[in-house]
Fold Glycosyltransferase RgtA/B/C/D-like domain-containing protein.
Amino acid sequence: MFSLVLLFLISRLSFLSRLPIFNDEGIYLRWGQDFIEYFGRGISPVSIDGKQAALPFFLGLIQLFPFDPLILARVMSVTFSLITFITVRAIFQKLFPKSSLYPLSLLMIFCPYLLFFDRLMTGESIMTAVFSLSLLITLTILENPKTRKAIFLGIVTGAGWWFKSTVILIIPAVFLVFFIQAINKRAKVLRLLWLNFIFLFSFLALILPLLLNPGYWRWPFEEGHRLVSFKEMIRFPLSLWLSNLRSATLLLFAHTTPAVFLLFIWGVISGLQKRKIIIPLIFFAVPLLSEIIFFKGFDSRYLVIILPAYLLITAFGLETLPHRWFKASFAGIFAVSVFMSSVLIVSPLRYYSTYLSYFPPIRGDFSQYVVGWPSGYGVKETVDWLKASAKEKTLVVFLRLNSGNPDDALLVYLRKEKNIKVVPVRYLGSVIKQIKESKIPDVEFYYVSRGNQLSGLENRLTEKIRFKKPLDSEYVGIYLVKI
């Protein structure tokens, strides 16, 4: 167990900053700084930009430590992913007590899809931890139905809601498991109905303070446009559902590797024949079908929550292979998974430009992490250049304060710098006038751009340097402002 945990941590923590700060990571970290700042003023926001408050709160707390905020955030993500790893092992042992845990452990460690999001701080690793714990608690309830277990299940799920609302996909899965169990064991129908009620009551009790706070509903929600409306639903949008199903299948096929996907299909077939994977399959299928039916499009992040159940079924499929095929199949799958995971860890750009070139739709989804302004390439270089320039003088850095890279990331990295003041570009005239009147010595004014977005200051800017993105024409530009 210790060696597997060590291998898991090595895979998650090695070259952790090789992929630079992603757009959403910069946003979440900036929100974290804002949250702690509000908190210090005696204000306790329940939401930031319509998002739940727990993730910004914890990301704000870790930035109180004097280390790279991106590394700290990603280490926090890895911590939650370790909870998932340990929990899924416990689930597999409970479902298949006679089976070895090594194949499952290695599948989880070297699953490129899971590994990638475990190493990012976008909240998905928290959701997989909540999902896995919910599945484990559900299994213990079926073994020994106790009220306190249903309360605990509601608390875990409710706590997950404070991080991301994706957790709501767990609720119909739990309901369906209890319903099937009630049909199979009619003597326990009332007991299971009671536990269902207690679970839902505990969940609602935990999230009610958030839902009843008027401040939560005052923030602009941006997620609604991603969901199928009631009017669209009654039109039976079959083409959308088929498109979503295709996207989900391709994402799993490409990012978990084709061999693992085929093994998952075998695990479903063999498991249904023996009725051994019904509960993991429900926890896989219900969230997946919900996303296919209710979402207008697919992002790779949507499927991360179901990966624990997916890998449980895959590990079972491997166990049920004929003995003469087992060693060869496992060796081949393991070798491919290790190779693909290693490429993803060491060179995300190569993973994108070579392997994903065989899957154009999936390559388009992955491009947000390595291509264009959402990618973080050029951000850290900009920070280092400004810090070096500020060693013997004061810098005033103007930003447009767009949401995302590079603006949010620069705010995160530069907020604690004593010799660098970050100011919204709309205050450029008044700030320059104020500093000139104050006769503060050794002050230079800079503007940092997202590509060619110069805020109408073309005549006042002299380009100092630009940091180009490696795979496209986008760049982060640093300009000296003429006064």
